[in-house]
Design goal:
452 residues; alpha+beta; Immunoglobulin-like; Aminopeptidase; 2 domains; six-stranded antiparallel β-sheet; six-stranded mixed β-sheet; 8 helices; 29% strand; elongated
């Protein structure tokens, strides 16, 4: 059973029951998130700007800490907070500003662990993974290390041989936990304590994909930081429509926005939409957006159609050649909005043949499809598993990242159309797509080099 919790650190002071807006400093520790899996604990520390950090480990009791220099907290009168984790590896997380301008994050450990650290961008964040240690050896103090965001020059610093964490009063519950908006530089933030014991479900622990030879993506250990979501059709291109008048373009836009909210809040990745309103975007422009945004994943969401009104089910596509008649017919319908001519065929075929993300796209499609089908079938007994397929969709051609097209159901089925009109069913479909994205991202989040 996995668990997910999130700590949001407010940018306001609670004085005499009134919230007073405070200017956000140049660099603020904005969020700490953690996930508990069966074999690891994953912690993400977010800041508003690029940062430098120093890490150290101290025994008796065993604890690991990170000092974020030139980074401040806004935690109210006590200037510190404790948040319980209580899994097999990590007892709690403590945060305090040890000296002005230096924020310390302390992990109070439950057992001997190996840990790995990765610095990520957009937004700036520090990712730490804890795994059970192989032995009791090596629990002495590790010399502090200074690390920097890749965009900033690395700085070597000579540090004392030992840096014990500062004395921190034990706090049963966080003094302040809240939500920080992404946009304003000054804000009044509502701060609410977390609901004790309430944890959002996460997919099973990450598993490496069974692929034989590793793809370049896995060999380089690449991670997921930005995802482009593409609601199909739009504007004058309505897509397919149901007998009750439900338009594909409206349905998939709503599902896309629901999915994007899940990705941002639960996976912590940045989301870029190819459209956010009823606007027509040419097919080849959609992957251009993904490439220009340097996205790590591209997911295009569509709804299906069939002359047989009873047809139901979900299917997921990745880019490749096919001789399957049904897949080719669907590709022809979805490609109808393309401005490409027969003279462009040679170039398009070359792009498909040279597409070096086919295997990763297949893995991405498999996980999205499995989760999408599971979510759909729970709410709709008519749903058929129509499988993972390959087809030459123009909207996927040219993407430089793993790219998938998901057909979330048939609006030409009157009963399914009625379900798609319900907000709770659309939310379940969005959650299924999110679970697929999260599972795929999990296969790329294996930090093999452990440090003591």
């Amino acid at each position: 059973m996995s668990a997910w919790m999130e700590i949001r650190l407010g940018v306001a002071l609670l004085v005499g029951g009134a919230l007073l807006a405070q200017p956000v400093p140049e660099n603020t520790l904005t969020a700490v998130r953690f996930w508990t899996f069966s074999d690891l604990t994953r912690i993400v520390i977010e800041t508003s700007e690029d940062f430098q950090f120093r890490k150290d480990r101290v025994p008796d009791p065993d604890r690991l800490f990170f000092d974020l220099t030139n980074t401040v907290l806004r935690l109210g009168k006590r200037g510190q907070v404790t948040y319980p984790v209580n899994d097999s590896r990590l007892r709690q997380i403590r945060l305090a500003e040890t000296v002005p301008g230096t924020s310390r994050v302390v992990f109070d450990l439950q057992q001997d662990v190996d840990f790995s650290v990765s610095v990520m961008t957009n937004p700036p964040r520090l990712l730490v993974e804890l795994r059970r240690g192989d032995s009791k050896a090596g629990k002495g103090v590790t010399p502090p290390v200074i690390s920097a965001i890749p965009t900033s020059p690395a700085v070597a610093v000579t540090s004392p041989a030992s840096l014990p964490p500062p004395p921190v009063r034990q706090i049963a519950e966080p003094s302040m936990v809240g939500s920080i908006p992404a946009l304003p530089k000054q804000a009044i933030v509502a701060i609410n304590p977390p609901v004790a014991g309430k944890r959002s479900p996460l997919p099973p622990p990450p598993r490496a994909a069974n692929m034989g030879a590793q793809s370049m993506t896995r060999a380089l250990g690449l991670k997921i930081g930005r995802i482009v979501l593409d609601p199909g059709h739009g504007g004058h291109d309505t897509g397919t429509s149901g007998v009750g008048g439900l338009l594909e373009k409206d349905l998939v836009l709503d599902v896309c926005k629901r999915l994007g909210a899940l990705v941002e809040t639960r996976l912590g990745a940045e989301v870029v939409y190819t459209r956010t309103d009823d606007t027509y975007i040419p097919l080849d422009r959609r992957t251009d957006i993904a490439n220009q945004q340097r996205a790590d994943l591209f997911l295009s969401i569509h709804a299906n159609s069939s002359p047989a009104g009873a047809t139901s089910g979900v299917e997921t596509y990745y880019l490749n050649f096919t001789d399957n008649k049904t897949a080719m017919e669907l590709a022809a319908r979805e490609n109808a909005g393309s401005s490409k001519t027969v003279y462009d065929l040679k170039e398009l075929l070359q792009k498909i043949a040279m597409h070096d993300k086919i295997e990763e796209s297949r893995q991405f499609a498999a996980r999205v499809h499995q989760s999408l089908y599971t979510a759909s079938a729970k709410a709709n007994q008519r749903t058929r598993d129509r499988g993972v397929k390959k087809a030459p969709f123009v909207v996927l051609i040219g993407a430089s990242m793993p790219s998938v097209l998901a057909e979330i159901g048939f609006v030409t089925n009157p009963k399914d159309e009625a379900l798609f009109r319900k907000a709770d069913f659309r939310q379940k479909i969005a959650d299924g797509l999110f679970q697929g994205i999260s599972r795929y991202a999990g296969t790329l989040s294996q930090f093999q080099v452990a440090q003591k």
